[in-house]
């Protein structure tokens, strides 16, 4: 159902959070008959007569359902809509149908999405392009479309991609894939299939040659041109690293030591951002300026203070083992603050791969025993401090314990490799508590 077809139709919006509010505003602007529902009646107060709390089936006469990304496909309301033959889409698909003449550059992956999209936005702005980072990074895509930006640098989650139907972006990348959100998608294969939707109809498919899943997903049904990148020496027509420089088929783009935050995984993110920008036609000079001036988002390899000459790094966003490995290997010697909710994930491979970097480990959270056993198996000589407290005040004790373990030349790194909800409101809250604990101890 395109823009012109929406006028006067009946659309049900599912979910009254940030995304739902933006969708209602956009549809109302078009003259659509909107109804909105949510499982929490208090979330619907601002919508007045448009609100229908707790629906389990679409109202009679509904022509389209637009769901917020957090709602599972198995939700009774969405199942009922599908059984009734009503099309169900997400906010991103709706934004695509309303977009006119805008260029979409899209990023997904298990880790690094927000950093890559931020880098891409910085590069585009350095090139003088009216661009904005949007999507899963915080600003709904539909708001960016309505605001009239020339280019959208879009972060897309697997939840968002599950509901796309006709998306055809100018250039897209899957950065990497590791086990995550399986409880939502049902299997790793379904998770990968959702991520692969970013490539459907893309004019340029950009893939990470160092990640098997990225290569595989980019090659499926490939009707578009493909561009690979690697943190190693690139082959012809690829992005990579040569003599300490990020390069595009031999053209120098940016010195590796100007990429921030540090770490090989962020060099990979920078290469992805550069490839997307170059697909749009951005000059090498603008790529370098954009990467040099990029300011990382909070809670992502963020220096939050120094105590006795030891840097304290907040990477609370490292909520899985794949992300934590990238942070831990960015530094030679690390006192690691780890732990939280693993949801069944294993940490043996992570500990084995980073054992040589560990100076000491501080464990907290509900699943710390899993970490402790892995360290005993793969790094038995590394001292471990365990904290029993389950409230977020334990972070102050964690910083003190890390301070006692750290030596000159080390960094103290919060890279939990686990979810945060056993002790905190989310990774942001966890990172904020860590930052305050460091600043209080300085």
Would you summarize the structure shown here?
The chain is an alpha/beta fold and 442 residues long. The chain has helices at residues 3-6, 18-30, 76-83, 91-98, 113-126, 141-147, 158-162, 182-185, 188-196, 212-219, 264-280, 284-293, 321-328, 348-354, 368-378, 394-405, 427-441, and strands spanning 10-14, 33-37, 64-67, 87-90, 103-108, 131-135, 151-155, 171-174, 204-208, 225-229, 239-242, 245-248, 251-255, 302-307, 310-314, 334-338, 358-363, 384-386, 411-414.
What characteristics describe this protein?
single chain; 442 residues; alpha/beta; Rossmann fold; UDP-N-acetylmuramoyl-L-alanine:D-glutamate ligase; Protein-Tyrosine Phosphatase, Chain A; 6-stranded parallel β-sheet; 6-stranded mixed β-sheet; 17 helices; 19 strands; cytoplasm; cell cycle; Mur_ligase_cen; Mur-like_cat_sf; Mur_ligase_C
The CATH architecture term of the largest domain is 3-Layer(aba) Sandwich
Instruction: Characterize the overall form.
Output: globular
Question: Roughly what percent helix?
Answer: 25-40%
> So, the CATH homologous superfamily of the largest domain?
Mur-like, catalytic domain
Multimerization status: single chain
Question: Quick one: biggest sheet?
Answer: 6 strands, parallel
> What does the average pLDDT come to?
94
* Rg from Cα: 23 Å
Instruction: Give the helix/strand class.
Output: alpha/beta
Pathway: Cell wall biogenesis; peptidoglycan biosynthesis
Function: Cell wall formation. Catalyzes the addition of glutamate to the nucleotide precursor UDP-N-acetylmuramoyl-L-alanine (UMA).
Organism: Kibdelosporangium aridum
Protein name: UDP-N-acetylmuramoylalanine--D-glutamate ligase
């Amino acid at each position: 159902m395109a823009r012109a077809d929406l006028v006067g139709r009946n659309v049900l919006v599912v979910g009254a959070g940030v995304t739902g509010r933006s969708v209602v505003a956009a549809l109302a602007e078009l003259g659509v008959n909107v109804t909105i529902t949510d499982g929490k009646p208090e979330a619907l107060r601002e919508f007045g007569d448009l609100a229908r709390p707790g629906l389990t089936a679409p109202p009679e006469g509904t022509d389209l359902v637009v769901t917020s990304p957090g709602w599972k496909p198995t939700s009774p309301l969405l199942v009922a809509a599908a059984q009734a033959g009503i099309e169900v889409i997400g906010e991103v698909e709706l934004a695509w149908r309303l977009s006119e003449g805008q260029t979409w550059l899209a990023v997904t992956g298990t880790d690094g999405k927000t950093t890559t999209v931020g880098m891409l936005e910085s590069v585009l702005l350095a090139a003088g392009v009216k661009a904005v980072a949007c999507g899963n990074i915080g600003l709904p895509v539909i708001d960016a479309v309505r605001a009239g930006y020339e280019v959208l640098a879009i972060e897309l989650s697997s939840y968002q991609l599950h509901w796309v139907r006709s998306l055809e972006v100018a250039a897209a990348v899957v950065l990497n894939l590791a086990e995550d959100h399986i409880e939502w998608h049902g299997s790793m294969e379904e998770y990968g299939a959702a991520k692969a939707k970013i490539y459907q109809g893309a004019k340029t498919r950009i893939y990470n040659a160092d990640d098997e899943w990225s290569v595989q997903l980019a090659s499926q049904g490939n009707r578009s041109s493909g561009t690979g990148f690697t943190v190693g020496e690139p082959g012809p027509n690829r992005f990579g690293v040569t003599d300490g420089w990020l390069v595009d088929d031999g053209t120098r783009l940016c010195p590796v030591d100007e990429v921030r935050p540090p770490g090989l995984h962020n060099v990979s993110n920078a290469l992805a951002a550069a490839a997307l920008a170059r697909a749009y036609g951005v000059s090498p000079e603008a790529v370098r300026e954009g990467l040099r001036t990029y300011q990382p988002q909070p809670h992502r390899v963020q220096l939050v203070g120094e105590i006795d000459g030891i840097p304290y790094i907040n990477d609370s966003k490292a909520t899985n083992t794949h992300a934590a490995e990238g942070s831990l290997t960015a530094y030679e010697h690390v006192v690691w603050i780890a732990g939280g909710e693993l949801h069944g994930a294993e940490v043996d491979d992570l500990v084995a791969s980073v054992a040589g970097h560990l100076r000491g480990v501080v464990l907290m959270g509900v699943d710390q025993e899993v970490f402790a056993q892995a360290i005993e198996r793969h790094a038995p000589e590394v001292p471990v401090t365990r904290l029993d407290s389950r409230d977020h005040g334990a972070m102050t004790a964690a910083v003190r314990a890390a301070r006692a373990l750290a030596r000159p030349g080390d960094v103290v790194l919060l890279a939990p490799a686990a979810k945060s909800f056993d002790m905190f409101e989310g990774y942001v809250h966890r990172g904020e508590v860590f930052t305050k604990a460091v600043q209080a101890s300085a």
